[in-house]
Design goal:
157 residues; mainly alpha; globular; three-stranded parallel beta sheet; 3 strands; 7 helices
Length: 157
């Protein structure tokens, strides 16, 4: 039997909510690895880069203190066409989180942001549904390819 995966994600959730519910949803499961995608909705709701980064730091601290040195990955916030007006904030928070997580003993960063841009720096429409916010099948295929090199960090036998 292969490794099991538990998705404790909630559609429409925020990094702030992930931090708030961490002890209730994640700690009891005692995961052997943790992969996080969050922050997109926080920025979309108007939170500042500093607020979002504070939530990330709080969650990362909780993960380190309650779960120990397990592999902990972060998938960068995607450059959705619908959120293009805040693309500079997305780029800034991704960079802050990348620096922070890569400085952690078992931390790693998955750069989906860059892979979802065309050569002119615009979001590739094919990676998104017509709403310009949610990902299409092609977007998820891309993410699967981006996550493959991290397979041994994500799936701990």
């Amino acid at each position: 039997i292969g490794p099991s995966v538990l998705n404790v994600g909630l559609g429409g959730s925020t990094l702030e909510a992930c931090d708030f519910f961490f002890a209730r949803l994640v700690v009891p499961v005692r995961p052997r690895s943790l992969l996080l995608y969050a922050g997109d909705n926080d920025l979309g709701d108007g939170r500042s880069v500093e607020q979002v980064f504070g939530c990330f730091r709080s969650l990362a601290g909780k993960a380190a203190s309650s779960l120990g040195p397990i592999p902990f990955g972060f998938i960068s916030i995607k450059p959705s066409p619908a959120r293009y007006p805040i693309i500079d904030r997305i780029r800034r928070i991704n960079e802050l989180i990348r620096r922070d997580i890569e400085a952690r003993p078992s931390g790693y960063y998955v750069d989906a942001y860059s892979a979802m841009l065309d050569p002119a720096g615009k979001p590739v429409p094919e990676f998104f549904l017509p709403d310009g916010l949610h990902m299409s099948r092609e977007g998820y295929r891309l993410w699967s390819r981006l996550l493959e090199p991290h397979r041994n960090q994500i799936f701990i036998g």
